[in-house]
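Fold this sequence, please.
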Amino acid sequence: MFTLIDLPYPKDALEPVISARTLEFHHGKHLQGYVDNLNKLLPGSGLEELPLEEIVKKAQGALFNNAGQILNHNWYFGQFAPKPSMAAPGGRLLEQIEKQWGDLEAFKAEFEQKGVSLFGSGWVWLQADADGALSIAQYAGADNPVAHGFQPVLTFDVWEHAYYLDYQNRRAAHLAALWPIVDWEKLTKAFVK
């Protein structure tokens, strides 16, 4: 059985970028719903004993949608910090971003553009292949890098429930506002290529 992850910060800690009210709905209602649904769907599926990433790789339909959304949201909520210790990536991650985009600002601009231009609901991800090459991907619905054999690095949620209470229909403003709360130290350590 899967359980709702605890947030690594108080619900009001990301304000004004993400309000406590948004986290109450986004984490406490939406993510909880995916956890509850996955737990109802797993019995008899043959996937009951697998870790979440393996379920995402093997499941289809409603099982995939709920498992994928749990994986996506766990990464999303876990990558933020109220006062990140690093304002930018470091180490190998920064080297790879600079190699591929020239500088961090060019990467951020493309990442935001991909988030804004994703039609409908979904996710924009920075992902790495087996050799450590990075790419920015748009994934609709619950889809994600794990389902396609990539290592997740960074994600912004572009489902309206992630930002509508705070930004209404201003997706671009929401995406631009997220950078100061990205915990680059955590993401730099997670990028091991």
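The chain is about 45% helix and 10% strand. The mean pLDDT is 96.
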